[in-house]
Amino acid sequence: MRKFVFIIITLVFAIYLTGCGKKQPKLEELQIPMSVETPTLSAAAPTETKAQPAAKIEVLPGAPGVGPAKLQPLPPSGPYKPTAIEIQTALKNAGFYTGNIDGKIGTQTKKAIEEFQKANGLQADGKIGTKTWAALSTYLNPVAETKPKTKK
Q1: Fewest 10 Å CB contacts: which of 63, 89, 115, 148?
Q2: CATH number of the domain that 101 lies in?
Q3: Does some domain include residue 26?
Q4: Domain assignment of residue 57, yes or no
């Protein structure tokens, strides 16, 4: 009896592994051919498709780096995270940081961040959050003062 049960379990397992005779579709059958036209479904007949031309991309002559294979990166999601160099530069331009702009957030940079936050009515935690960066980023690229030209 044990031998009979073992043979039946083995046969069931073998049938399960072979997939009960199901055939896998060929790779070519799964692929959808690409075309320049984008099909859209018609509201009148859901089984029919109408092809509409794809959006035109206008390329100006002599535009550098423009080509069909060159893709633009997506903008980062979430709030902008400034680099350490940007933070130090903005703090230096605002007059709160006197050290070297080395791209390292050390104790001197953290003290400058806290002083900036206190001076601007922000929570002085020494971290650059969205509110702190919104206030600090205005000092990143200060507008150069222009002197009026005088004629001699």
Answers
A1: 148
A2: 1.10.101.10
A3: no
A4: no
Q: Please report which confidence band the pLDDT of residue 20 belongs to, taking 50, 70 and 90 as the band edges.
A: low
Query: What proportions of the chain, in percent to the nearest 5, are helix, strand and coil?
Result: 35, 5, 60
The boundaries of the domain holding residue 91 are: 84-139
Query: Residue 100 domain-assigned?
Result: yes
pLDDT computed for residue 15 by the predictor: 77
**112 located within any domain:** yes
Q: Which percentage of the chain shows pLDDT scores above 90?
A: 32
| CA nearest to 84, candidates 66, 104, 111, 100 | 104
Residue from 74, 102, 65 nearest 87 by CA: 102
As for how many domains the chain has, the answer is: 1
Judge contact between 109 and 91, C-beta under 8 A: yes
Give CA–CA dist 45/47, Å, rounded.
Answer: 5
Q: Which two tokens stand for residue 38?
A: 């984008």
Residues 110-139: tens digit of each pLDDT: 999 999 999 999 999 999 999 999 999 999
Helix (H) or strand (E) holding 116: helix 107-119
| Phi and psi angles of residue 145, each rounded to the nearest 5 degrees, phi first | -75, 135
